[in-house]
Design brief:
By secondary structure, the chain is mainly beta. The protein is built from 2 helices and 5 strands, in the order E-E-E-H-E-E-H. The protein has one domain: OB fold (Dihydrolipoamide Acetyltransferase, E2P). It starts with a strand and ends with a helix.
Amino acid sequence: MKTIMIAGNIGKTAELREAGGTSVAGFSVAVEGREKGQKTTTWFDCSIWGKRAEVLAQYLTKGSKVAISGELGTREYNDKTYLTVNVSEVTLMGGGQDRREEGNQSSGGQSSNRNLDDEIPF
């Protein structure tokens, strides 16, 4: 197994779907770095499965910062190779906008009180 840990910004809000009777949330993460003095961005297509996908999908929104770990893989499409991560752990680091709060921001840009420990089953 090839395990990878990355931290970056979600580039595409998670899409929740069913695959073989199991829920899966797919999203992309951009990781910035430097190579030969130039800023680079590496994109990872990420998937999280099962009940965690159902619960976390609402928080995996475009612009949010996350740290994830999981199994690194690749897929080929139209003669291009894409990096994939089958996610085993997710740490939400902030940013982005919660889907439940879209169009309903509180004053001062503060988020509503949410206790994530009660909502995430791990």
